[in-house]
Automatic annotation (TrEMBL), chain A:
UniProt source species: Nonomuraea angiospora
Protein name: Xanthine dehydrogenase YagS FAD-binding subunit
Molecular function GO terms recorded: xanthine dehydrogenase activity
All residue ranges annotated as the FAD-binding PCMH-type domain in the record: 1-219
UniProt KW Glycoprotein keyword: no
UniProt keywords, alphabetically: Oxidoreductase
Family annotation (Pfam families): CO_deh_flav_C (PF03450), FAD_binding_5 (PF00941)
Catalytic EC class: oxidoreductase
Membrane-spanning intervals of the chain: none
EC numbers: 1.17.1.4
TrEMBL record, chain B:
Annotated InterPro entries: 2Fe-2S-bd, 2Fe-2S-bd_dom_sf, 2Fe-2S_ferredoxin-like_sf, 2Fe-2S_ferredoxin-type, 2Fe2S_fd_BS, Aldehyde_Oxdr_Iron-Sulfur, Beta-grasp_dom_sf
Taxonomic superkingdom: Bacteria
CDD domains: fer2
Organism: Nonomuraea angiospora
Presence of the UniProt keyword Magnesium in the record: no
Listed name of the protein: Xanthine dehydrogenase YagT iron-sulfur-binding subunit
Signal peptide: none
PROSITE patterns linked: 2FE2S_FER_1, 2FE2S_FER_2
Keywords of the record: Iron, Metal-binding, Oxidoreductase
Keyword Metal-binding: yes
Database matches in Gene3D superfamilies: 3.10.20.30, [2Fe-2S]-binding domain
Membrane-traversing stretches: none
Length: 322, 162
C-alpha cells in the first residue's frame, strides 16, 4: 500500500476545507481500505469522515433524514426504517455481512466502487481504473456484469443494494463541497459509463455526502428481493426494489429499480409507464418487463440476466399485487 | 502517528504507520495472535474482533482510524481463568473449525448475540426474531471456511443465545 497522510475531520466543513489534490474521504473503510490494499486506490491523503457527528436518523415533517455516517446495521435496525421503509431495511440487510454492516456507512455504501474483477486487478487494463486502457471484461469474464446502459468502454455494475432501494424511494442525497451545498435526487447520483466510466457519480472533487433524506413512503406495497449465487454474503446477480399501488384492479402507481444490471441503480421507467393505468395482471407485468428489457444489450455469458431480470420483475409484482 | 487503544481492558499507546490495519497492530505489535489473517479483504471473518462492542473485520480497519476505541479480541472473552459460556459451549458441542477460523467465529458470535433487529431472512421486520438456527446461520454468514463443523457452531451458539 502506498504511504499516505491521515487526518480526522472535526466537522463536514472542516473535511471539505482540508480536501486537496490526491485526497480521499474515508468512511467505514470496508471498500476503500480494500481497494488501497489491492493498489486500485492510491490516495496521498485520507480525511477520515467516518466519525463525524453525522450519525443520527431523524424524522421531520413525514420525512426521514439519515446521516451520512450512520452505520448500515443501525440503518436497517432503526424502528422507523423497519416500519415505514421495510424495502430499505431489506436491501441493507441483504448486503455484505454483520461485521461489514457494522463498519460500513450510508454514504460509503452509495460511493462504493464496482466489484468488476478487472477493475480490482491492477495487472489488467480497465477503463474505469485507468481511462483509455481498454476493457478486457467485454471479451473476457463478464458473467456478473451489466446488461443495461453499458458502453463500449465499460460493462461494470454498481454493487450497492442500498442505492437500488433509494432509487425506488426517490431519496435525496445532501451534499456539501467546495462549490457549496446541493441536493442530488436518486436515481441521478450514479451515472452510466458512456465515455467516462472512471466517474461513478455526478459528484465533483471534494464533494461530501452529509445525509440521505427519504420522502414519505410512496403508497402501495413494496419489496426488495435479491438473486445471487449463494444465499448470503454475495453481490446481486439481479436485485429489485419495487413499489406497486393497485386500486380497483388498476395500477395507480408503480416504481421499479433494478440492481446488478447496470453502472447505476436502474430505474425501469419503461416498465413503469407500461403498467400505470393498466390492469394489475401477470400478463401486464410480463409485457412491462419485456418493454424494459428490450433495451438490454447482454454479452454472451451474461445473457442469462435478461430472463432472470424479467422473471424477477414479474414474480415480484405478482407478489405485490393484491 | 501515536494512537491509544483499550484492548481487552488494558490501555496501550502505540506509534503506528497509517497503513497498518487494526489486525496487524493486534498481532504484530501487541502479540495478540488470536485474531487471524485469513483473506485480508473482509471476506472470511477470521479477523473478527469487537470494536466498541460491535463485531468488525479488523483487517479492514486502519489502526489509526480506531484511535480511542475499545477492542475485545478472542483473548479477552475469558473472565480470569473462566471460559466465557460461549467458549464452553463451543467445546461442549465440538464446534471447532481448524483453529484459524474459530477465534473469528467466537468473536462474531459474541457480537451477534448483542445485535438487535432483524436479519435478511426475518419474516416480519417489525419484530425482533428469536435466534433460531436459521437466524444464527444467516447472522454468522460473514465467517467463511471450508471445514465441516458449521452445524455444531449453530448448536453451540443456540445454547448460549437468550
Amino acid at each position: 500500500m502506498k504511504l499516505f497522510e491521515y487526518t480526522r475531520a472535526g466537522s463536514a466543513a472542516d473535511a471539505v476545507r482540508s480536501f486537496g489534490p490526491g485526497t480521499m474521504y474515508l468512511g467505514g473503510g470496508t471498500n476503500l481500505v480494500d481497494l488501497m490494499r489491492l493498489g486500485v486506490a492510491e490516495p496521498d491523503r485520507l480525511v477520515d469522515v467516518g466519525k463525524l457527528p453525522l450519525d443520527a436518523i431523524e424524522e421531520a415533517g413525514g420525512r426521514l433524514r439519515v446521516g451520512a455516517a450512520v452505520r448500515n446495521s443501525d440503518l436497517a435496525a432503526h424502528p422507523l426504517v423497519r416500519s415505514r421503509y421495510p424495502m430499505l431495511a431489506r436491501a441493507v440487510l441483504s448486503g455484505a455481512s454483520g461485521q461489514v454492516r457494522n463498519m460500513a456507512t450510508t454514504a460509503g455504501n452509495l460511493l462504493q466502487r464496482t466489484r468488476c474483477p478487472y477493475f480490482q486487478d491492477v495487472t489488467r487494463p480497465c477503463n474505469k481504473r485507468q481511462p483509455g486502457s481498454g476493457c478486457p471484461a467485454i471479451e473476457g469474464d463478464h458473467t456478473n456484469l451489466a446488461i443495461l446502459g453499458t458502453s463500449h468502454a465499460c460493462v461494470a455494475t454498481h454493487p450497492s443494494d442500498l442505492a437500488v432501494a433509494l432509487a425506488a424511494l426517490e431519496a435525496e442525497v445532501h451534499v456539501t463541497g467546495p462549490g457549496g451545498d446541493k441536493i442530488v435526487p436518486m436515481p441521478g447520483l450514479h451515472r452510466l459509463p458512456g465515455d467516462a466510466p472512471e466517474r461513478d457519480t455526478v459528484l465533483e472533487e471534494g464533494d461530501l455526502i452529509t445525509a440521505v433524506e427519504l420522502p414519505a413512503p410512496p403508497p402501495g406495497a413494496s419489496l426488495y428481493r435479491k438473486v445471487r449465487e449463494r444465499a448470503s454474503f454475495a453481490f446481486a446477480l439481479v436485485s429489485i426494489a419495487a413499489v406497486l399501488d393497485v386500486r380497483d384492479g388498476t395500477v395507480a402507481g408503480c416504481r421499479i429499480a433494478l440492481g446488478g444490471v447496470a453502472h447505476a441503480p436502474w430505474r425501469a421507467e419503461h416498465a413503469e409507464q407500461v403498467l400505470v393505468g393498466g390492469p394489475a395482471t401477470g400478463e401486464a407485468f410480463r409485457t412491462a418487463a419485456e418493454a424494459e428489457l428490450e433495451r438490454a444489450r447482454p454479452l454472451p455469458r451474461n445473457d442469462f440476466k435478461v430472463p432472470l431480470a424479467r422473471n424477477l420483475i414479474v414474480r415480484t409484482l405478482e407478489e405485490l399485487a393484491p | 502517528m501515536d494512537i491509544t487503544l483499550k484492548v481487552n481492558g488494558s490501555s496501550h499507546s502505540v506509534p503506528v504507520d497509517p497503513r497498518m490495519s487494526l489486525l496487524d497492530l493486534l498481532r504484530e505489535r501487541l502479540g495478540l495472535i488470536g485474531a487471524k489473517k485469513g483473506c485480508d479483504h473482509g471476506q472470511c471473518g477470521a479477523c473478527t474482533v469487537l470494536i466498541d462492542g460491535r463485531r468488525a473485520n479488523s483487517c479492514l480497519a486502519l489502526a489509526v482510524a480506531t484511535d480511542g476505541s475499545e477492542i475485545v479480541t478472542v483473548e479477552g472473552l475469558m473472565d480470569g481463568d473462566e471460559l466465557h459460556p460461549l467458549q464452553a459451549a463451543f467445546i461442549e458441542h465440538d464446534a471447532f473449525q481448524c483453529g484459524y477460523c474459530t477465534p473469528g467465529q467466537l468473536c462474531s458470535a459474541m457480537g451477534m448475540l448483542g445485535e438487535p433487529g432483524p436479519s435478511a431472512i426475518t419474516g416480519d421486520l417489525r419484530e425482533d426474531p428469536g435466534l433460531t438456527p436459521e437466524e444464527i446461520r444467516e447472522r454468522m454468514s460473514g465467517n467463511l471456511c471450508r471445514c465441516g463443523a458449521y452445524v455444531n457452531i449453530v448448536s453451540a451458539i443456540a445454547e448460549v443465545a437468550p
